[in-house]
Amino acid sequence: MKTITRSDVFKQYAIISAVISDFQNLNYDEDYPEYNTDLDHLTLGRNEALYHKSFIFMLPHNDINTYTEALSEKLEKLFKALNINEFVLVSVPNSNIIGDTTITEPKFVKAQNYLQQFTKNKNYNEAFIFDIKDVSRMIHAYFWLSRLDMSLPEQLFFFDSKQQFFFFICKRGNIHLTVLDKNINLSNEVIKQNGFLPDADIDQF
Length: 205
What we know:
This protein is an alpha+beta fold. It has one domain (2-198). It contains 6 helices and 8 strands; from the N terminus they run βααβαβαβαβββαβ. Strands 1-4-3-5-6-7-2-8 form an 8-stranded antiparallel beta sheet. Strand 6 and strand 7 (175-179) form a beta hairpin.
């Protein structure tokens, strides 16, 4: 696990750069320019050709205290089957991605402290690169941050470093995944075979 600047992500990963730019273009509000201050990678127009298909899926599991462990185990199995070993985490808006420091819920603080080991700062607007061995810690951290911090950007994307897909964890703890490489072997059937429930997005907790 290591930190990386947003600008270096955009320089080193052309498809990630294009996706972030595309979402920023989508979020741009010409009527309220004061809302656009965190859009640091705008370009002209949109590029919908980047996206091939999307999936929403959940893991049936009603114990919130063991949910991230179970979710990470299933995701790691899926990623290994897809031959994915490394990830880049970056948000669409240029804003703090390690949570509100005024939140004192113990699980939130533990997740935040884990990330601050690497950022060395209580506020962090950049990005992370991490191996598949770090997936469980990152899934755990961002499940709790997303669930308990309403100020955290929902468009906080986990890209595989081969730039074949990206996903985010919503506040309900479910996975929203978009395919960028049409050749990747991912379908509702594959998702189901790995223990997930496709086309489902409810809050189990």
